[in-house]
Amino acid sequence: MRILVRTDAGDAAECAAGLIAERLARDPKTVLGLATGGTMEEVYRRLIVRHRAGTCRFAEATSFNLDEYVGLGAEHPCSYWRYMREHLFDHVDLAAERAHLPRGDAADPQAEAERYEAAIVAAGDIGLQLLGLGPNGHIGFNEPSSSLASLTRVKTLARSTREANARFFARAEDVPRLAITMGIGTILRAREVVLVAIGPGKAEAAARMIEGAVSASCPASVLQFHRHCTVVLDRAAAEGLALRDYYEDIHPGGC
Ligand code: F6R
After folding, report:
1. 104-124 pLDDT per residue, tens
2. Distance 135 CA to ligand 1 centre (A)
3. Mean pLDDT of the region 3-18
4. CA neighbor of 165 nearest in space, from 153, 146, 148, 179
5. Which of the following is catalytic: 42, 143, 192, 234?
6. Alpha-carbon span 95 to 72, nearest angstrom
7. Domains of the chain
8. What is the pTM of this model?
9. What's the pLDDT band for 131 if we cut at 50, 70, 90?
10. Residue 199: closest CA among 4, 9, 70, 5
11. Do residues 178 and 109 make contact, with C-beta atoms less than 8 angstroms apart?
């Protein structure tokens, strides 16, 4: 794992946006794995700035989002489709027919999950996977106890995840209980992973992911097995790292 500790949240987002832009410059046909949530909003803002400056093009890229809530159609204001349109898709030149999310309102969510997994395989798997980190160590919606070999499927959200995501809904009880999520096995097939975690609320999960035992009780810890994984943290999220000095010696300033 390459651990980059940046000064603050904005700096961490800029670093992640830079890694994505570099990848797209090297391989414009990259298959991107995308995430949603609070952390990504700033990453996408920085990508849009680069796109407007002419330094980041998505025209030949394909994307697959990690997850979608079961029961929410694309036009639902809290769906991840709407999130992606608002925070990225409506502002860059990614072709609509190559931007994929699971269909949350599919009549048979498990069949939709299997279709989505097959579509990722057919696209040649993910080239660069962007991830956030749940305070409980989840990646995508692979909650603690998820199989480390899992594929895209329907998962029940942990109560703490529903509470954390309640801020995006009008009422806490509106947060769906189920989501379709890429599996951990799906994520591990990505050729490159960039995980971003910011703020003190992620410090414990970040320490378990980077320095703890590989365990389904902290799904992100499986990234220790990935050959090309970069973790971008701000100082607050790096607070619990025992080997922080070492990471900062290797990558001064998180570069
Ligand atoms: C979102 C996703 C989640 C989030 C994670 C962190 O598509 O898959 O794993 O990345 O819950 O969310 P924030 O950034 O809101 O703290």
Report:
1. 999 999 999 999 999 999 999
2. 9
3. 98
4. 179
5. 143
6. 23
7. 2-254 (3.40.50.1360)
8. 0.98
9. very high
10. 9
11. yes
